[in-house]
C-alpha cells in the first residue's frame, strides 16, 4: 500500500516537494472492518489547511473506494464506498469507530447512482454538491426572480450553486478566472458570467444586475467580495463558503481589510459562514436531490480527472492557479 505524507506545513502556494509517497504495510482486518482500495481521490481547497501539530503527517481527503476484503455485513466485497481515508491506496476501515467522529460521515456505502460514474460521489453527488445545495438553499434562501451572484463559479461548488439557483428561478451571475470558463457557465444557463481577471466587477454588476444583488455565494473572499457586497439590495443574504483568495497568504495581516459594516448595517444584510458538516445528518437528502436534478438533465457537471496516484500534488496545486474546471479528482 502507498500513502502521501505532508513533510511540513504548507507555506504560500503548496509545492510538490511538500509531499512524499511512503509505503505502508497494513494489518489484517478484524470483525466489523473491511479493506478498501482507492479508485478516485478527492482534491479540495480545504486540504491546504494546517493538518496537525506534528509533521510529517498523513494527507487528508475523501476517496471513492472498492471493498476488496470484508468482515462487515454492510460492506460486501465489490461494493463502492465513500470514505475520508486520506490520500492512500488502501485502508483498513472500521465504520463503527468512525461513527463516533463528529465530522461529516467518515465512511458510507455509496448510494446507487445507476449508470452514472461513482466518481460523482466526490463531486455533485457528495460533499461538494451538498455544500452548494445546503449553502444556497439554507443560507442564501433565494426566491424566484432574485439575482444571485457566485464567485469561483466554474469550480466544483460554484458551478452547482449557479445551476441550482437557476433551477429555483433566479437570475445568476458568475465570476471565474478565464474566458473559456465563462463560456462554459453560459452553456450551463448562467444569466451572465465575467472573467474577474479582466472585467471591471462593478461595471459588470451595474450592467447585469441593474436591480441589485439579492444573494451572494462567496467562494473566494477578498476584494471582489467587498465589491459585490457593496452592490447588494436591502435584506440581501451572503453565504460565506470559502475564501480561497487568501489561503496561500502566509501573513494574513497583509490581507487588505475592507470595511463592510456600513453596507451590512444600512442594507440590513445577513452574512453567515458555514461548514457543510453542519448538514451532515442530511447528507443523503442532499445527494438524492442533486441526483434527481442530474437525472433530469437540469444539473450538469464537469470532472477534471488527473490520471495516476503520482499526479495528486500537481492536481492540488492546480486548484490555486485555476487549472481546473469543475471537480478535481485523481484516478488512482
Ligand atoms: P474549486 O473547484 O472552485 O477550485 C478552486 C478554484 O478557485 C480554482 O479553480 C480557481 O478558479 C479559484 N481560485 C483560486 N485562487 C483564487 C484566487 N486567488 N482568487 C479567486 N479565485 C481563485 O474548489 P471547490 O469548489 O472545492 O471550493 C470552492 C470554495 O468553497 C473554496 O473556497 C473552498 O474552500 C470552499 N468550500 C467550503 C466548504 C464548506 O463547508 N464551507 C466545502 C467545500 C468547499 P478561477 O480560475 O475562477 O480563479
TrEMBL record:
<dbReference type="GO" id="GO:0005737">
    <property type="term" value="C:cytoplasm"/>
</dbReference>
<comment type="subunit">
    <text>Monomer or homodimer.</text>
</comment>
<dbReference type="InterPro" id="IPR014190">
    <property type="entry name" value="PTGR1"/>
</dbReference>
<keyword id="KW-0007">Acetylation</keyword>
<dbReference type="GO" id="GO:0032440">
    <property type="term" value="F:2-alkenal reductase [NAD(P)H] activity"/>
</dbReference>
<keyword id="KW-0597">Phosphoprotein</keyword>
<keyword id="KW-0644">Prostaglandin metabolism</keyword>
<dbReference type="InterPro" id="IPR041694">
    <property type="entry name" value="ADH_N_2"/>
</dbReference>
<comment type="similarity">
    <text>Belongs to the NADP-dependent oxidoreductase L4BD family.</text>
</comment>
<dbReference type="InterPro" id="IPR020843">
    <property type="entry name" value="ER"/>
</dbReference>
<dbReference type="InterPro" id="IPR045010">
    <property type="entry name" value="MDR_fam"/>
</dbReference>
<dbReference type="GO" id="GO:0047522">
    <property type="term" value="F:15-oxoprostaglandin 13-reductase [NAD(P)+] activity"/>
</dbReference>
<dbReference type="InterPro" id="IPR013149">
    <property type="entry name" value="ADH-like_C"/>
</dbReference>
<dbReference type="InterPro" id="IPR011032">
    <property type="entry name" value="GroES-like_sf"/>
</dbReference>
<protein>
    <recommendedName>
        <fullName>Prostaglandin reductase 1</fullName>
        <ecNumber>1.3.1.48</ecNumber>
        <ecNumber>1.3.1.74</ecNumber>
    </recommendedName>
</protein>
<keyword id="KW-0443">Lipid metabolism</keyword>
<dbReference type="Pfam" id="PF16884">
    <property type="entry name" value="ADH_N_2"/>
</dbReference>
<keyword id="KW-0560">Oxidoreductase</keyword>
<keyword id="KW-0521">NADP</keyword>
<dbReference type="Pfam" id="PF00107">
    <property type="entry name" value="ADH_zinc_N"/>
</dbReference>
<keyword id="KW-0276">Fatty acid metabolism</keyword>
<feature type="domain" description="Enoyl reductase (ER)">
    <location>
        <begin position="12"/>
        <end position="330"/>
    </location>
</feature>
<keyword id="KW-0379">Hydroxylation</keyword>
<dbReference type="InterPro" id="IPR036291">
    <property type="entry name" value="NAD(P)-bd_dom_sf"/>
</dbReference>
<dbReference type="GO" id="GO:0006693">
    <property type="term" value="P:prostaglandin metabolic process"/>
</dbReference>
<keyword id="KW-0963">Cytoplasm</keyword>
Amino acid at each position: 500500500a502507498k500513502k502521501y505524507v505532508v513533510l511540513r506545513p504548507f507555506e504560500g502556494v503548496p509545492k510538490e516537494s511538500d509531499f512524499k509517497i511512503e509505503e505502508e504495510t497494513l494489518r489484517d482486518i478484524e470483525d466489523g472492518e473491511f479493506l478498501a482500495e482507492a479508485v478516485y481521490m478527492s482534491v479540495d481547497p480545504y486540504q491546504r489547511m494546517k493538518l496537525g501539530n506534528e509533521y510529517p503527517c498523513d494527507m487528508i481527503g475523501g476517496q471513492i473506494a472498492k471493498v476488496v476484503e470484508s468482515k462487515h455485513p454492510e460492506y460486501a466485497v465489490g461494493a463502492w464506498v465513500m470514505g475520508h481515508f486520506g490520500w492512500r491506496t488502501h485502508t483498513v476501515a472500521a465504520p463503527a469507530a468512525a461513527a463516533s467522529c463528529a465530522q461529516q460521515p467518515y465512511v458510507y456505502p455509496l448510494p446507487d447512482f445507476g449508470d452514472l460514474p461513482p466518481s460523482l460521489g466526490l463531486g455533485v453527488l457528495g460533499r461538494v454538491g451538498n455544500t452548494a445545495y445546503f449553502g444556497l438553499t439554507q443560507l442564501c434562501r433565494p426566491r424566484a426572480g432574485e439575482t444571485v451572484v457566485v464567485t469561483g463559479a466554474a469550480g466544483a461548488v460554484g458551478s452547482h450553486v449557479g445551476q441550482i439557483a437557476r433551477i429555483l428561478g433566479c437570475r445568476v451571475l458568475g465570476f471565474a478566472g478565464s474566458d473559456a470558463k465563462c463560456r462554459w457557465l453560459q452553456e450551463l444557463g448562467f444569466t451572465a458570467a465575467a472573467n474577474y481577471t479582466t472585467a471591471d466587477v462593478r461595471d459588470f454588476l451595474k450592467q447585469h444586475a441593474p436591480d441589485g444583488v439579492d444573494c451572494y455565494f462567496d467562494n473566494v473572499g477578498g476584494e471582489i467580495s467587498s465589491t459585490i457586497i457593496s452592490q447588494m439590495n436591502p435584506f440581501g443574504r451572503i453565504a460565506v463558503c470559502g475564501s480561497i483568495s487568501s489561503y496561500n497568504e502566509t501573513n494574513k495581516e497583509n490581507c487588505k481589510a475592507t470595511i463592510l459594516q456600513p453596507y451590512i448595517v444600512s442594507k440590513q444584510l445577513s452574512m453567515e459562514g458555514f461548514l457543510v458538516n453542519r448538514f451532515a445528518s442530511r447528507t443523503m437528502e442532499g445527494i438524492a436531490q442533486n441526483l434527481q436534478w442530474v437525472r433530469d438533465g437540469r444539473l450538469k457537471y464537469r470532472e477534471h480527472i488527473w490520471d495516476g496516484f503520482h499526479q495528486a500534488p500537481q492536481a492540488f496545486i492546480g486548484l490555486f492557479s485555476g487549472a481546473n474546471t469543475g471537480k478535481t479528482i485523481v484516478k488512482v
